[in-house]
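Entries read chain and fold; for instance:
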Amino acid sequence: GAAGIPLDKLAIIIGALGVGIGFGLQNIVNNLVSGIILAFEKPMDVGDVIEIGPDTGRVKEIGIRSSKISTFDGADIIVPNGDFISQRLTNWTHNNTYRRIELVVGVAYGTDLDIAQQAVQKVLDEETGIENQPSPSIFWHEMGNSAISMRILFWTSDFDNWVALKSRVLKAIYQHFSKA
């Protein structure tokens, strides 16, 4: 009052400033509360392989405000904890390291389907990285323009090497088909 500034106008300015700061801090508070929820619910742990939105990687660090994810391309991304609460989170290794692998293989028309299926079954039986339980499955999937598609499903317990296993099985199937 002594400076000549009316206190009622100063109160309005301070109130508006408080509202602005409140809206600015809303996201930070959301992430802090989400971090606390993550600490109690434990939908993910350090080392888990997760998928959130378009990003997939291994959880490197879980913080109060944000978490670090290491992608398989070598990047580290920082994800606000609020995203883990508000978006769909897929945790591939939360309870175990099992992963189902799917292959779709085309077999030319005129091929003996029983022989083709036996060749694939032989590959699946010989591969050591494939789990016996649940047992691998082979289904005839669809009839395409130039081939009949075979859908092959099998499980591995080594999540970190599922891409290499898929590659080995695909190569072995091709080699068996070439011999047959």
